[in-house]
Write a structure and sequence with these properties.
The structure is a single chain. The protein has 3 helices and 10 strands, in the order E-E-E-E-E-H-H-E-H-E-E-E-E. It is an alpha+beta fold. The protein has one domain: 60s Ribosomal Protein L30, Chain: A (2-Layer Sandwich), CATH 3.30.1330.200.
Amino acid sequence: MSDLILGIGEYGVSKTPGSMVKTYALGSCVAVTMYEPNLKIAGMVHVALPESKLNTAKGEQCPGYFADLGVPLLFKEMVRLGCHARGRGLVVKMLGGAAVMAGNDTFNIGKRNILAVKKILWKLGMGPVAEDVGANYSRTVSLHVDTGLVNVSCPGRGQWQI
């Protein structure tokens, strides 16, 4: 079993039985998970900022860093591996977008990331079936390839599923 570990700005897809797609310490970042239950294809992107126009060079170098590039690329990769081209059957979830800067969330990055992801999913004709967003704590997220279950954990808060 070989898990796929994603860092900030990375996206990936797995069909490996018994494995997980995982990312650590989502603060204001947002993870979008996509799962195709019949084909058992699991994908995730770890988005840091809403729009690539903030830094076009970074967008070219690391497109998953931005919601407007990363979410469509994740979907494209899911389709490449056999998912329906219009997203039919995909189970989409989103997590993160926390306000982690105690008392100083001037830029509202978490909220802006959440809204950007929802807008992009809407443009793709999709929406999340479950969310665990906002609040003021970081999350570690694991998407199980065999089941599509999304486990969330946070130090001091325990573990849960969405």
